[in-house]
């Protein structure tokens, strides 16, 4: 078995090392992750400059690019064969609901998925969470299950793990994405030259968080597993717009 690991928090992130440790006895591991924290990079590719691929003393590879660059480069320019599973994470913080649109963690997994590898994005659903070991153990269990019971066709799983001890987990739930309230406004401040600068503000709180959503599962002590797809077509509106343009 060959696993490709990436993330968006950077090759030095504890969550990445935790996944590598959790999976290392299951097969061969290649790690290709961003040189810097690229959280929020979404599915961006770096097209305005070349990329470099370097190897850290840990054996992890790092790229001066985005999470998507890392998996793209690994699959198309580095590895001889497609990895058996692509794992992205463990992210420092949740990736639920609308987060998935912005997430570099989900994007790295998506890139593997688009190339045909089963892919899992894993997030510990608390910023600077205390229970990375819980998420690492869940990741291993999911990968073991995938190996035991291989899935036909392309798979992209978005996994969020509550930040609680493993033995307090209530189990796993297959969920749909919830929705957040609108994001908080940008934060305006000044640079040392007195010019205005802006920081992107925090995401909104959970709005659609009823039972069945990722937000609900995590808030109630369950690991949330949302199968994702990439087709953004609004099928329910196709008929309306067909009339609208007639
Ligand atoms: Mn991140």
What does this 3D model show about the protein?
By secondary structure, this protein is an alpha/beta fold. It has a single domain (2-179, 207-244), classed as Survival protein SurE-like phosphatase/nucleotidase (Stationary-phase Survival Protein Sure Homolog, Chain: A, 3-Layer(aba) Sandwich). 28% of the residues lie in helices and 25% in strands. Helix 5 links the parallel strand 6 and strand 7. The model has no long low-confidence stretch (mean pLDDT 97). Bound molecules: manganese (II) ion. Manganese (II) ion is lined by residues 8-9, 39, 91-92, 105.
Index terms:
alpha/beta, nine-stranded mixed beta sheet, two-stranded antiparallel sheet, 28% helix, Stationary-phase Survival Protein Sure Homolog, Chain: A, 7 helices, 246 residues, binds manganese (II) ion, single chain, globular
